[in-house]
Amino acid sequence: xxxxxxxxxxxxxxxxxxxxxxxxxxxxxxxxxxxxxxxxxxxxxxxxxxxxxxxxxxxxxxxxxxxxxxxxxxxxxxxxxxxxxxxxxxxxxxxxxxxxxxxxxxxxxxxxxxxxxxxxxxxxxxxxxxxxxxxxxxxxxxxxxxxxxxxxxxxxxxxx
Length: 160
What we know:
mainly alpha
């Protein structure tokens, strides 16, 4: 059940990254999009080789566990591609953006660690992965609270 809630956060994070990237780019900035796709395809290949083909066919994982593992892989690749797109769109890299990129990178590492623990079927494992999740959310929170985030968002217009 926790996996479903965690995976539900991926579209919200993706929407935030798309919104930030749209605020910093021209409508047709194809080079940044192409760069993001290149990184996403390379990351997909590496993650697929490490996580999917390295696991034995009958690892004891249920179909639901395999489905969640695949969804995490897809979500991570999506967030990585959008983060790279934003990285190439930014003219200046502020502390808030570096914290945000660090958060996404640590989230990717935590999902890889969780996948490795799932392949080992180690119920006692996962301590490092849980710590990475806490670090990732802490970094995201610090990015949102840092004063340099104001350089990337427009103030809300008053209603009326």
